Amino acid sequence: MNAIMKLHHQFATASVAALVACALSGTAGAQAVQAEPVAPAQQQDTGGESNTRDTADIVVTGSRITTSGFNAPTPTQVIGEEQIANNAQPNIFNTIAQLPSLQGSTGASTGTFSTSSGQQGLSSFSLRGLGPIRTLTLLDGQRVVAANVTGVPDISMFPQLLVKRVDVVTGGASASYGSDAVGGVVNFITDTHFEGFKGNILGSITKYGDDETALVQGAWGKSFADGRLHVVLSGEYDHEGGVGAGDFGTDLAGSRDWYRATTLMNTGITNNGLPQFNYRDYAQPYQYSRYGLINSGPLQGIAFDQNGVPYNFQYGSNGQPLGNGRVSNCYPGNSFCVGGDLTGAPGSGASLKSELERINGYGRIGYEFADNNEAYVTVNIAQVKTNNQPSPGYNRPSLTVQCANAFLPQLIKDRCATAGITSFGYGSSNANFPDPHVYTDRKQYRFVGGLKGAVGVAGTEWNYDAYYQHGITISDINVRDIVLQNRYVAATNAIVLNGAIVCADPVARANGCQPINIFGGAPPSASALAYVAPGDNGPFQHTKLTQDVASLNISGSPFESWAGPVSVAFGGEYRREFYRVNADPYGAGVSDLSPNSPEYPADPLLNSQLGSNWAAGNYKNGRGKYEVWEGYLEVDLPIINSDAMGRANLNGAARVTNYSTSGTVWTWKIGGTWDTPLDGVRLRAVTSRDVRAPNLSELFAAPTVTTLPNFTDPFRNQAVQVFQNTIGNTNLQPEVARNTELGIVLSRPSWAPGLSLSFDYYNIKLSGVVSSLSADQIVRFCFEGNQAFCGGFQLDGPQGTNFVNVQPFNLASWKTNGFDIEASYQWQQPLGLPGNFTVRALATHIRKFIVEAGIAGVDPVDQAGANNGNTPDWKWLAVQTYDSGRFSLTVQERWFSDGTFGNQYVVCQSSCPVSTGNHPTIDYNTMKGAFYVDIGASFDITDKITVYGKVDNLFDKDPVAAPQTNTGLDINPALYDTLGRIYRAGVRFNF
């Protein structure tokens, strides 16, 4: 029987309670697993690294107290090694992210529609829907250098095979662990004293024949010098093929057929008694087509096929071109019809999942220089590479074409003459262009040296843990086949000169312009492509992040009260965060680079100083740093310890933190637990003040430019292309949260020794939230008369100059509350069969999630139940496992409830109120939830070799539409499975 099966079998024979506490539910608040007799293999350190040798003291994540029998008041969910193995995922992140309390986590299936975010393939957790930046992720109780300027680490870079347990603290823990622990803490505990050799090989593929995955993991550990010197090494390689892009129109990758181009159609009319927005499938953008469409003027409605032959475009909604850029019977607010020719719509052409490759190497050497005292060094080196396609071709809806264009068919030139025009409006998806791709490459180097152990002082044993960490992340983003916009415009304006077709602009010609035929599907020449989309010099961003941490934590029980030993923990930490980013001159400008370098020659058509010349991926240069000094004190005071009254304790902590950017802030918590005289009943409560300091990106980011190709201009009631400029703000202050939790636990009562239940209510109030209004909100609020929003945008400027500025401020406040329910039960020898059967379930209900923008004229919005976001009303996870000792079968169900597109909408069919930016009217606002079933099994071939298999999304449940008001792939991968059924198989071994 391999090690994992041994663990499971010992749980069954030694203690049902230990199974529940260590494997999943944590319903006793991640209590000391030594509370019941447990086989030696089950004794664990539930805090940072494993204690040296054998010890009864533990650390509970969410507290710094180190003592036997301590019960933390903050609820903690625990995912054990067995569940991690049973879930059979190539990335442990996927297993943890399924917990209902985690909402809005990012991974390889999110962020694939973006060119400029730089977060493709970044695996990071979000607790309570508060975002990854408000969840503190630790490795063995220690901070980890960020993988992105937002400050979040990448779980893909952790030594995953050595993880023996993951503690998820579902409440504020800033007083114990510092900044960022507003939503809670996710702490990965590794087996730092692993002995032997173990490995895991996994392969998987979807029903549709894509996302082929190969995972190989190995770990080795051995003791030397009479057990005092211990060495652990691990390595892993994971390649996930991803799910590539579909084609234009509604064709997705593989044979997936669920895409309907669903969109919220905007009538542009707010006060006629009808809904402004209409939910419709098969949205047809009427400003462009696959190979080109005349979209305004007397010739509006003439399109071009692949061979460049003109034809009359088939509009949806029985629409007819009106000559003014609009189409009858269609939706002018965002330029859509329903049905018709959809072959030029780019929404389905985005990757559903990034291709991902990760390599991870880890080593630890520890030397026990005295009993229970160890010096250690760890090294973790990892690389994660991803690539994806954010969209196909190059969507350009707002060109002006001259009737004299050399490539324009003579028929259209004649029609121009007849109509008496010299130019017309034109839009094209440029399906004849190469599809753009985004490549990310993150390398991380993390070094930790530390001392930990226990020493006696004045008759009292004190535990200490001191370490220094230096971490470096090097992140490179390269975008290929993105055009330089002004060069593209110049290349499309072609004339005949001396018998040859050339670019009309003499300045452009002098700087290498090569003409492009945009009428039809003929691909541009190699020289033309090199001019408009220089492949070797596409957008790039090179980022270096460093993190230095020096930390000292001391804990002990210096004296006893009337009810037991009083425990204290105290310590301090210094942290320095730094980043520097360099980008290409075409995107960033040339203020600190040579404008005449061979790679980036000067070009009068381009903005050499400000940059932002690319159609997307206009990265900027920047740098910044901050330092943090902090100290804390935590006390656990037993107050009741008797047969009549039970056992109770009070737990309190305070931390003072000084940020070099924003000054000093205090955090604190106070709570307690009471093991009542009632059989198995425990009460717990905690309230805390928590903070999140602004991250490097929010403070110091230079302008980041995102292209919005189909932005709604409410002043002219039409779609335009704009640049969204996002910049940092060095005056930001820390966000402050008040977090309160109340809970009741039924744990292993004598009348049902296999049962554990818990109910925990939470309430979080977060003020000074660093946030920005969206570009659409800024423009719409100005349109509705709020002059405070009118100075930061331009919508009617010359080609390529329209913009909306977006900047973060401590504007918003969030209020969320709800409750968590956990339950588990285990039957030994069910129905007379050998082994045991375990049922576990976790559920989270979000009662409200109110977001207040903090700006006059902007109404609060309750996002609870908005399935277009991350916070469904209900979310649960249920697992049933039968284990005979040699064979195991696991069935898992994942579910979240029906919701809305957004709770700001007013649903009506007629007699509608006036539609506003705060409360737009809509004809339909229901977004169905989803129910997924996974099934897996394993079989021990020998005591040391196990084969296993698993099917995720057994019934191949398709995602429902998550409609927006613009062109795009209308899904929400943060909630819905977008890949379909996945088959997995592998083998584990342990020698």
* Residue share in helix: under 10%
Please give the largest β-sheet: 22 strands, antiparallel, barrel
CATH superfamily of the largest domain: TonB-dependent receptor, beta-barrel domain
Q: Give the rounded overall mean pLDDT.
A: 88
Q: Using the 3D structure, state the CATH architecture of the largest domain.
A: Beta Barrel
The top-level CATH class of the largest domain is Mainly Beta
Distance between the termini: 11 Å
* Total discrete domains: 3
Quick one: overall form? elongated
CATH topology of the largest domain: Maltoporin, Chain A
Could you name the ranges where pLDDT drops below 50 across 5 or more consecutive residues?
1-58
Based on secondary structure, the structural category is mainly beta
**Beta-strand residue percentage:** 35-45%
Number of strands: 44
**Assembly annotation:** single chain
- Give the C-alpha Rg: 30 Å
Q: Tally the helices: what do you get?
A: 12
Task: Explain what this protein looks like in three dimensions.
There is one protein chain. This protein is mainly β. The chain folds into three domains: 601 residues, TonB-dependent receptor, beta-barrel domain (Maltoporin, Chain A), CATH 2.40.170.20; 141 residues, no CATH class; 76 residues, no CATH class. The chain contains twelve helices and 44 strands. The protein has a 22-stranded antiparallel β-barrel. Helix 1 packs across helix 2. The N and C termini lie close together (11 Å).
